[in-house]
Design a protein that fits this description.
The protein has three helices and six strands; from the N terminus they run βββαββααβ. The N and C termini lie far apart (38 Å).
Length: 141
């Protein structure tokens, strides 16, 4: 891989701690969500941060695929739902549902564009074979 960009974030205190990027732009308290034993859902958590990164990255990959295909669409949106659960060996795993809305195209075209974006997106490439990822599409204006 030819590196194009690197960033660094440091976590202190794990799921009940703090994360801070090297440039200070990301500077958040993180806490365990209520469903995992936390007091409430008033803080960010690792799954939320992963969902934010994956949805933003996938929407960029989708935009690139749309541009290269010379397809006219409205503004796209990508929503990522990230789940955490326990697996058979007692460890934990993630699962992702990505929903892309691509206005002004048929559902068939939208599905094709999303499938292509899934091959381009760095998050998709990093997680392929390791995390269950379900893709859905819509074409609402």
């Amino acid at each position: 891989m030819r590196t194009l960009y690197t960033t660094t974030v440091t976590a202190t205190g794990g799921r009940n701690g703090h994360v801070r990027s090297e440039n200070g732009i990301l500077d958040l308290e993180v806490r365990m969500p209520k469903s995992l034993g936390g007091a409430n859902d008033n803080y960010s958590n690792p799954e939320m941060l992963f969902a934010a990164g994956y949805s933003a990255c996938f929407d960029s990959a989708l935009s690139r695929v749309i541009k290269l295909a010379n397809v006219q669409t409205g503004e796209t949106t990508v929503t990522a739902s990230v789940s955490i659960g326990q697996i058979e060996n007692g460890g934990f795993a993630l699962a992702v549902q990505l929903h892309a809305n691509i206005p002004n195209v048929s559902l068939e075209v939208a599905k094709s564009l999303v499938d292509k974006a899934h091959q381009v997106c760095p998050y998709s490439n990093a997680t392929r074979g390791n995390i269950a990822v379900v893709l859905t599409v819509s074409n609402n204006n």
